[in-house]
Amino acid sequence: MFHRILVEEWQRVLTTISFGIFLVTFGIIALRTWRMPRESIRRLENLPLENDTNDHE
């Protein structure tokens, strides 16, 4: 019976820690994209549409 109580406590702690890691990672990514210069945003938003200059054929 005591073993089950201890396992349930660790599951709660690990869930809280993993949620915290997710929030910190999401916050860092959100801050980096918010502070990104406009030139970088324009370059990245057009990146998939640029033509290749190297012919691979």
Q: Could you walk me through the main structural features you see in this protein, from its secondary elements to its overall organization?
A:
The protein has 57 residues and is mainly α. Helices cover 72% and strands 0% of the residues. The protein contains two helices and no strands.
Which key features would you list for this structure?
57 residues
Structural class: mainly alpha
Q: How do the SSEs run, as a string of H and E?
A: HH
Discrete helix count: 2
Radius of gyration: 22 Å
> What would you call the shape?
elongated
Can you give the helix content as a percent range?
Answer: over 70%
Strand content: under 5%
Write the layout of secondary structure elements.
Layout: H1 2-34, H2 38-45
Short description:
The chain is mostly helical and 57 residues long.
